[in-house]
Amino acid sequence: MKLTDAWLRNPKAQQYFIRTWLSVAEKWTNRFFKDEFDIKISTNNGVETQNKVIKSSYLKLTSDKSLNSTIETIIDQFLPESLKKYNLKNLKLTGEYKKMSDVIPKFLHRRPEPFVKHIYNRLSTAQNIYSENKIKKLELEHTFHVKSEDGTCVYTINFQIPNCTCIDYIKFHWPCKHLCAIFLYVPGYSFDDLPVHIFGK
């Protein structure tokens, strides 16, 4: 890019790009996301689902099937009700809606329930079966080896990405018990120390 005529002819554009985009390259360039969950959307299932909802729950209540009537139904009924449902789901995740149990770590407060259950279960497992001697910090920065529960396998964790080579992380792309063991036993590597763009931090 820096060898192109467009780049060489525009010093102001260079300064803008360097200041605004290159300074936060880890948030948007593929280089930093090569091990992230990456999937191409190749179906229209979401659109078809919404189409089914509109037909079965809204349009069947009116005899006027014209385009104008359909648009009015979507604008006046479907969209406002969808927004209410969306807002309610978000409200349920706030501390004002429901007090989180004191046994749940603070970093899991105000997060989706499936995520909380996933992490809490693995944190509990890690606390019961792991200790510092099953974790080895490698020479490569932010990288660890964590032994399996029975000691027959070793899993590699890159905390900065983050990822783990275990099946659980590959399947869910959420912290596994090995990553949770690092949260618990390695100073400076808690959940709050993960990169800011991870898990909605």
General description of the model:
It is a single chain. With 201 residues, the protein is α+β, with helices and mostly antiparallel strands. It has a domain at 106-198. Helix content is 42%, strand content 7%. It contains seven helices and four strands. The chain has helices at residues 5-8, 11-20, 45-57, 67-91, 113-129, 167-172, 177-185, and strands spanning 135-137, 143-147, 154-158, 163-164. Helix 5 (113-129) crosses helix 7 (177-185). The relative contact order is 0.08.
The N- to C-terminal Cα distance equals 32 Å
Supply Rg: 24 Å
Low-confidence stretches: none
Average pLDDT metric: 85
Outline the biggest β-sheet.
Answer: 4 strands, antiparallel
**Strand residue content:** 5-15%
Shape: extended
Major sheet: order of its strands?
Answer: 1-2-3-4
Q: Report helical residue fraction.
A: 40-55%
Class per helix and strand makeup? alpha+beta
Count of alpha and pi helical runs:
7
Number of strands: 4
SSE series:
HHHHHEEEEHH
